[in-house]
Design goal:
Number of helices: 32
Distance between the termini: 72 Å
Strand order of the largest sheet: 1-2-3
Helix content: 55-70%
Strand content: under 5%
Length: 690
């Protein structure tokens, strides 16, 4: 762009500035200053004054001086970290000034508007460069470029009466909001401000619509780039920052997600929603202390945001800090006494703690505050069901669905209620109506729950038909494909089952459970080498995820717990496979050790390792591993019973008798707890594989 010939304009170029694009002509001085994009970065350094570019205003065209010199006021040295000022950073800035002059300085230059796409491409290249993705200086330099897009600076025709001072009666092309040299500054500023506000509103709406379409088409990277460019024009748009943050999280780019929300809060320090997004990220990673600090920051920014108290209170409740959770939720209700979200959260907390009357009072208050909130009706329905008031529970679920026919949780609760009561025909009717919600396609959870009910009733053909319909609506749902594949494998339809599991891997290659199911299938068909390949690929995928999360948050151990458990399951399956099929004891033992390294507190894993050593004749080692299983899960009766069998074989009848009685006690208690159900999930299905 800079090498193209440029004819000299007929009049001097007006003042160029990154703060306001249209200003009155400069004062009759020999030089003026243009703020450089690096100036805000340099202000943080004590010994450096704001960096500027000096442009001679008396010249007929400023681009005779594009070899601009960078300097500082009072001859202060440039910060050592700023030495890498190269064309990747400055070229977009120069191109922006170039295109602006082409459009503004003279009507004769209107034919040179074509460099604008080239300049825009320079800016995109800088943003995509290795250093440009995270360097705020490049982003700030590109702000000048993005403001000069055709939508904002599209020229329009100005009539003769509006151009009397230009020396001619013919219409000329000028940018929107441009005024004559003699027009007062205030009128120019008002026109420009109004134009910028209207354009920003249109741009934001168009960006959201286009970004939604790109995500729906699977072009997530293009959507991220779109949001990044839009944020250059309007860095104060918190909603757009949230869109970008969610895209990073959905792709597993946790470091980029954290960086984006940190940058968003630099521009929007009073946006409590952004503070909560960051806190939820740290909470999900198990960094609870950091999450608490961020929740406090969010409350300082906006103490009336109910979702902050709700998310923080739920975190404390899940950690077992019931009193702290109750205090947080009560503080939130003091700020927002009519918030149904907080009333539901506190009501559920009281319900789990056994305070049924308090829970009912809070939930009824929530219904009075928001009578059309389906979550409140669903919550009080669960309370009434646990108290044995089935008719009231069913009525509340009907009201919830009347408020929102797409509320899948209410549909699922109603269907599970009928299923638990043995009303299978009613449950099928509810499932059928539920799967017609959400635009006629239902949700994957509803379809899968319906199929599992039929499978549990031995209606395999009906379950297969349900899975087929569900997959037609949700062809990329990995869990749906896995469950369908497992059903087909049990029925002996191996090829179709294998195809479903491979489709699940294509849909979600990071799902470790899919590798485990596919490896088991290959092993059952005596494809031992293929099974090893699948197991190895699953371990590699799990290790890659663990390493990525480790690099992102070295202090977060519990944040990787789910991934560690999935990896331990896969290693355990592989170890059992090698023992039974390959008779490779050393490899099996090595895999057991790796599984234990992933989850040292899993009692069932220690028990399985102990039984393996017992089969190999290492009774003392097996005794030690049984002790580890009991120490980690002392309430698991199966650990005690297995240990008693080992002691019996070693001739320790007294120990064996004690361990056996203890195990029988614990198993009886566990059966009672299962019969009563989980107070938090009263409608959870107790799945027993046939």
């Amino acid at each position: 762009v800079l090498q193209r010939p440029l004819p000299l304009p007929a009049r001097p170029c007006p003042l160029l500035t990154t703060a306001s694009l249209f200003l009155p002509p400069p004062p009759p001085s020999s030089r003026f200053l243009v703020p450089h994009p690096y100036s805000s970065c340099l202000r943080s350094h004590r010994s450096v004054q704001p960096l500027s570019i000096r442009l001679p205003c008396s010249a007929p065209c400023p681009f005779a001086f594009l070899s601009l010199r960078l300097g500082c006021f009072q001859s202060h040295p440039i910060h050592p970290g700023m030495k890498s000022i190269d064309r990747k950073v400055l070229l977009p800035f120069y191109c922006a000034l170039y295109v602006f002059a082409l459009e503004y300085t003279s009507p004769a230059l209107s034919s040179f508007i074509s460099p604008l796409p080239d300049a825009h491409n320079f800016g995109r290249a800088a943003l995509k460069s290795r250093c440009g993705r995270r360097d705020p200086r490049i982003l700030e330099a590109n702000q000048v470029l993005v403001r000069l897009r055709m939508k904002t600076l599209a020229p329009h025709t100005v009539g003769p009466e509006s151009n009397k001072n230009s020396g001619g009666g013919n219409s000329v092309l000028r940018p929107h909001g441009a005024v004559s040299a003699t027009a007062p500054f205030t009128s120019s500023s008002k026109l420009m401000n109004q134009r910028v506000e209207d354009t920003q509103t249109d741009d934001v709406n168009a960006t959201f619509a286009l970004g939604k379409e790109l995500v729906r088409a699977g072009k997530t990277n293009e959507a991220k780039l779109l949001y990044q460019e839009a944020l250059l024009r309007n860095s104060g748009n918190g909603k757009m920052w949230m869109k970008l943050f969610k895209l990073h999280r959905s792709q597993g780019s946790l470091e980029e997600a954290r960086s984006s929300v940190r940058e968003a809060l630099r521009h929007n320090p009073c946006n409590a929603v952004l503070w909560q997004a960051w806190a939820d990220l740290e909470k999900d990673l198990g960094r609870h202390d950091a999450a608490r600090q961020l929740f406090k920051k969010g409350i300082e920014a906006n103490p009336r945001l109910p979702s902050l108290y709700n998310s923080w209170g739920r975190m404390e409740r899940d950690l077992g800090n019931v009193q702290t959770a109750r205090q947080i939720l009560e503080d939130g209700l003091k700020q927002a006494p009519t918030s149904a979200r907080l009333l539901i959260a506190l009501g559920i907390l009281e319900d789990v703690e056994g305070n049924n009357e308090n829970a009912r009072h809070l939930l009824l208050h929530g219904i009075q505050s928001e009578p059309n909130n389906p979550f409140t009706y669903q919550a009080i329905a669960m309370l009434e069901y646990k108290l044995g008031n089935v008719a009231d529970a069913r009525e509340h679920l009907r009201r919830a669905i009347a408020c929102d026919r797409d509320h899948s949780m209410s549909w699922l609760s109603w269907a599970r209620l009928e299923e638990n009561l043995g009303n299978l025909d009613n449950a099928r009717t509810v499932y059928s109506n539920a799967c017609k919600s959400c635009g006629g396609r239902g949700t994957a959870n509803l379809w899968q729950s319906w199929a599992r009910m039929e499978e549990q009733q031995s209606n395999d053909r009906v379950a297969i038909d349900i899975y087929k319909k569900a997959i037609a609506f949700f062809p990329k749902d990995a869990q749906l494909l896995v469950e369908y594949g497992k059903l087909l494998e049990r029925r002996g339809e191996i090829e179709t089952a294998r195809r479903m599991l491979k489709e699940a891997l294509k849909a979600d290659g990071s799902n470790i459970y899919v590798y485990q199911c596919l490896g088991r299938l290959e092993a059952s068909q005596f494809n031992y080498e293929q099974a090893r390949v699948v197991f190895s690929a699953g371990i590699s995928a799990a290790e890659a995820q663990v390493q990525s999360m480790f690099n992102f948050s070295r202090s977060s151990e519990s944040g990787r717990s789910k991934l560690d458990r999935a990896m331990a399951d896969l290693l355990h399956t592989w170890a059992i496979f090698e023992e039974k099929v390959g008779n490779n004891v050393n490899l099996s033992r090595s895999l057991f050790h790796r599984a234990i390294g992933c989850c040292e507190t899993e009692g069932w894993l220690w028990r399985s390792f102990a039984e393996f050593e017992r089969r190999q004749g290492n009774t003392l080692v097996a005794r030690h591993y049984f002790a580890m299983a009991v120490n980690n899960e002392p309430r698991d009766g199966l650990n005690w019973i297995s240990w008693s069998q080992l002691e019996e074989s070693m001739g320790e009848s007294h120990r064996a008798s004690f361990y056996s009685r203890r195990g029988a006690e614990l198993q009886a208690r566990q059966q009672i707890r299962q019969a009563l159900g989980d107070s938090r999930k009263p409608l959870m299905r107790l799945w027993n594989a046939r």
